[in-house]
Amino acid sequence: MFEVEPVEKKQPQGRAVAVDKQFRAFDPHQVLLLPPSLDDWLPEDHLARFVADLVDEVLDLGPVLADYTEKRGYPPYDPRLMLRLLIYGYTTGVRSSRAIERKCADDIAFRYLAAGQAPDFRSISRFRRRHLDALADLFTQSLHLATKLGMVKMGRVALDGTKLQASASKHKAMSYGRLVDKEERIEAEIAWLEAKAQGLLADAEGADKAEDETFGVDGKEADLPAELDRREKRLAKQQAARAQIEAEAAEKARAHAEDKERRRQERAGTGDERAVADAAEQAAANARPKPKAQANFTDPGSRITKNSDGAYIQAYNAQADVDEEHQVITAADVTTNPSDALNDTTMLDQSAANTSVHPKQALVDAGYSSETNLEAARERQLAGGTDTFMATGRLAHDEQVPPAPRGRIPRKATLKERMARKLRTKPGRKAYSRRKAIVEPVFGQIMTCQNGRQLLLRGEDGARGEWRLLAACYNFRKVFQHAQTAGLAAVIA
């Protein structure tokens, strides 16, 4: 339209001129002449190869296989396949059954472990729930494997606890006082609905008219029974939660009364078990829950507790006893009590039973400090030679432990005072300073590398089984790192 003079085309400034470069051959539609092998797609030192050899040649699968007693039915997936996927998933932080199903299609390592198969998430979830006890038993096998490699010395162990978020919301919990109030209101609503339904049924002649007035012209007769059914189900859940709180209060009162009566008899130099039982039953009968005692409708075994960040969460209290040599977990358990004080003796006893050796030193956090645990520590030293270092209080940030006072220990010093003095000595401070370096990194690796901050299974048994599976996979990862130099053949031998 407009006449313009032709202009010579210029190359953009700063950009190199393309040359006739030869690239490597790339053909996305190339058909393979030979079928591919998944074995060629992973490095020789890959964790997935270790897991495959571990399941196929090292672990005892008897507890899992013993559960298959019925010959009829469609053939299930091979337990070795499912164990491979679960162990590798829980080791690498892929714990959800749906996530494992996706990985079997997207991830080379999972495809290698599944030998090209792709079990659906329901099969994975059912296998995990069905064989939960056998999966938890893998923890003991992992500990024995680490001991066989010389990774467990039991010279010094550290005990601590951490809060694992339950598969339930804290907003689904209700206090005992509110439960009582809600039950009364729902019972009154149910009584009103039942009376209304009976009145409608009794008035046979005016049934249609009454239904139109009650339900509306287009209403259904089933609306009232459905509303009644919903309230009855809600009442049943609340009554179950109330019964749980009352049973826990009674059990706590029973245990406290038994301990109190036995202590009284020890001071008096007598021993009457009948009196102990009577005191316990009377205390249980008179026990009344605190108004703020709570129960959760989704996961009744979990409790609202404060985590390390100071936030209140619906959680379980996970315990771990860790050996210093290679930070191998020697004991793992889960409790519903937010306090650590009740777990000191049971965890150290479990550690000694799992390894058949009493540790020379036990480093215990201040959360376990109690007169009962200090007495148990003294008896443990006399029986098994375990020297316990238990903090009797918490220090502020950057606060230094004061030196121990000079002179002899007073004869009237309590066990707590003696332990506090012991931790203020140079050997005591040196030994206890190792506690955080032994056990805290273990929790950090499980929370981050294994995605173990929140549980997937509900109930105390489910939480315990999943925590022990996490601990087992943590130990297997430690064995893998240690066995990379010697090879798995040395482990099998």
TrEMBL record:
Location of the region described as Disordered in the Swiss-Prot/TrEMBL record: 207-226, 233-304
InterPro entries assigned: IS1182_transpos (IPR047629), Transposase_11 (IPR002559), Transposase_InsH_N (IPR008490)
Domain (Transposase IS4-like): residue spans on this chain: 306-476
Ranges for domain Transposase InsH N-terminal: 37-130
Composition bias type Basic and acidic residues, residue spans: 249-276
Source species: Streptomyces tanashiensis
Name of protein: IS1182 family transposase
Biased composition (Low complexity): 237-247, 277-287
Cited NCBIfam families: transpos_IS1182
Highest classification ranks of the organism: Bacteria, Bacillati, Actinomycetota, Actinomycetes, Kitasatosporales
Listed Polar residues bias regions: 295-304
